[in-house]
Amino acid sequence: MTNSRNKVVLLAGGVGGAKIAEGLSQIIPDDQLIIYVNTGDDFQHFGLEISPDLDTVTYMMAGLSNPDTGWGRAEETWNALKTIELLDGPMWFNLGDKDLGNHLERTRLKNKGFKLSEVSQLFCEKYGIRQKILPMSDDQIQTMIHTVEFGFLSFQEYFVKQRCEPVIDGIKFRGIGKAQPVNGMVETIKSSKFVIIAPSNPWVSIDPIIAMKGVRSALKNKTIVAISPIIGGKPVKGPVCKMYRELGYEASALSVVKHYQGFLRGFILDHADSNFESEIIINGIIPYVTNTIMHDKNSRRKLAQETLDFCGRLNQ
Amino acid sequence: MTNSRNKVVLLAGGVGGAKIAEGLSQIIPDDQLIIYVNTGDDFQHFGLEISPDLDTVTYMMAGLSNPDTGWGRAEETWNALKTIELLDGPMWFNLGDKDLGNHLERTRLKNKGFKLSEVSQLFCEKYGIRQKILPMSDDQIQTMIHTVEFGFLSFQEYFVKQRCEPVIDGIKFRGIGKAQPVNGMVETIKSSKFVIIAPSNPWVSIDPIIAMKGVRSALKNKTIVAISPIIGGKPVKGPVCKMYRELGYEASALSVVKHYQGFLRGFILDHADSNFESEIIINGIIPYVTNTIMHDKNSRRKLAQETLDFCGRLNQ
Questions:
Q1: For B158, phi and psi rounded to 5 degrees?
Q2: Contact B267, B228 (CB under 8 A)
């Protein structure tokens, strides 16, 4: 039996979440790592149930992910999409052939009545992943981006179809009021050793997880460390800086600290942002400065080890 | 404007229907060939809307079909199915990657409210097919095979999953009572010059078309010619002979003639079956003996030309 008090919980979005998850998996015993993944970006397309962040984390943990993009499968082919192109169908979402198999089987199982968390655990087993990768919820939560030009867009419409170009002035999580965190999540957080917040977009990857009933209060008094998704005022990936600016904040690692204020204990930031150290301390949070870029397996393990060591020191 | 009295109607199943359709398209002006395709084999799989016979005819007419199998796409890849295999999902139905694009776009359009006939016409346009390929109906008709061992199986379960192995003792077309032939079909048959019945399985490819309200009576007094799907007591393809035997009939070209008795005017049979000529005549139907195997583009055109010439003579 595993002592639940040894468990490390990771709250994760897509590529940043996948990388630190894989790093942690190199160090922590398999049954002590539990990854809760954002599902606010999930959507239906061509009748298929698509869970982009879950797949990104799963492919990375299975050693199947595309090392160039961070999402999708390595050595992917695009023949289904070529047919869709020929038929003048919608091309904005990248549906690789190998990736499609995942969407098809998930859709089949969900149509049979399986919960997303059951599908996710089954897929982990089949892909040979021994850690737990779970959706944040089995209920539908839809991240909606309010844009000045188009009003509300679903996350994928904003992120992929509109390439994050429209100016945003609000975000909401449709369905969050009624949604339950996935079975066991609140208890697992409460009894865990550490909670790590991946270098994911706070607005659209982490906020949906924390906004669910019972999660924020479960985080109180835990050892919680976040890794900055912003380095030197620039995003490691995606629209996080653009979002901070358009919503009226400075695009910086410091804004991420303030974002998580109220439950955060420690914050890992890049050398490029060491100038924020003293202000982070003033905000009551303990900073740790290191190299936060994860460009390969070694750098993923190194950042994961530093994160765990930092959590360990905070726990003393 | 096309004179509808010049129109040639083809009633078609899958591979046999596709081949004679392509042959006819080499000869008849584009706007004078109308192909009504069996949809009794259509089914949902992985949440996708799959129309096997429509796709087989469409791919052949578009010049995209696999010349070795007669169904599916040429130079197909199978990466989605490989993922499904890795996930231990159902592997019994062949889902090629290029083919999947067709299913995905059809599903998307049907979910948006398009009728199958609208999708089919749109796909023809996009694939550069100038002839009309239409589903027999926009309503759901499901060919159910009653087997001694398993009771009722859907056609694809019988045909693909069980590889036609179970002994059958009945066939029904679920939904046939309420289904309407596709818009314009009855009128088109009535005003057509000839109706050709493809060398398809009478039980499961042609019967569903003829069993729809109004079709059999529309066929009365037309010049109707069928091409035998049985040569020398053996099927050109599929379970047609096994079905005749298990349902209590001789598996022969003559049984096909009797199957269509009541509306058939002429019957095209292979040299191998010329011994049936006199008995076909006794049954009031005019036989035409030729080489009915269509192994390439030339033999498809040749059989189509002979069929049209034969129809012309019957019309005089």
A1: -65, -50
A2: yes
Element holding A97 (H helix, E strand): helix A97-111
Q: How close does chain B come to A63, measured CA to CA in Å?
A: 14
Per-residue pLDDT, B4 = 67
pLDDT digits over B230-288, tens only? Answer: 999 999 989 999 999 999 999 999 999 999 999 999 999 999 999 999 999 999 999 99
Q: Do B122 and A84 touch (CB under 8 A)?
A: no
Residues 6+ apart with CB under 8 A from B23: B294, B300, B301, B302, B303, B304, B305
The pLDDT mean for chain A works out to 96
Q: Torsion angle, CA of B116/B120/B126/B128, rounded to 10 degrees?
A: 180
Query: Is this prediction's ipTM beyond 0.90?
Result: yes
CB burial class (10 A; 0-12, 13-18, 19+) of residue B24?
Answer: buried
Question: Within 10 A of A288 (CB to CB), how many other CB atoms are there?
Answer: 20
Q: What phi, psi does A147 have (nearest 5°)?
A: -110, 150
Q: Provide the token pair at A242.
A: 């653009």
Contact status, residue A281 vs residue A287, Cβ threshold 8 Å: yes
Residue A100 with chain B: CB contacts under 8 Å:
79-80, 83, 97, 100
pLDDT for res A3:
61
- The size of the A-B interface in CB pairs under 8 A is 120
A101 in contact with chain B, both atoms CB, cutoff 8 A = yes
Whether B303 shows a pLDDT value over 50: the answer reads: yes
Q: Kindly report the nearest CA distance between residue A79 and chain B, in angstroms.
A: 5
Are A187 and A180 spatial neighbours (Cβ–Cβ below 8 Å)? no
For B68-90, the pLDDT digits (tens) are 888 899 999 999 999 999 999 99
Q: Residue B91 phi/psi, 5° resolution?
A: -110, 0
pLDDT greater than 60 at residue B2: no
pLDDT of residue B1: 44
Residue B125 sits at the chain A interface (C-beta within 8 Å) = no
